[in-house]
Amino acid sequence: MDTTQLFSLKGRSALITGGSRGIGRMIAEGFLAQGARVYISARKAAACDQTAKELSTFGHCVSLPADVSTLEGAQALVDAYAKHEDSLDILVNNAGAAWGAPYDEFPESGWDKVVDLNLKTPFFLTQALTPMLRKAATDHLAKVINIASIDGISVNPQETYSYAASKAGLIQLTRRMALRLAQDRIVVSAIAPGAFASDMNKLARDHGDEVKERIPAGRIGLPEDMAGAAIYLASRAGDYVMGSTLVVDGGVTHAR
Ligand SMILES: NC(=O)c1ccc[n+]([C@@H]2O[C@H](COP(=O)([O-])OP(=O)(O)OC[C@H]3O[C@@H](n4cnc5c(N)ncnc54)[C@H](OP(=O)(O)O)[C@@H]3O)[C@@H](O)[C@H]2O)c1
Question: Is residue 81 flagged as an active site residue?
Answer without folding.
Answer: no
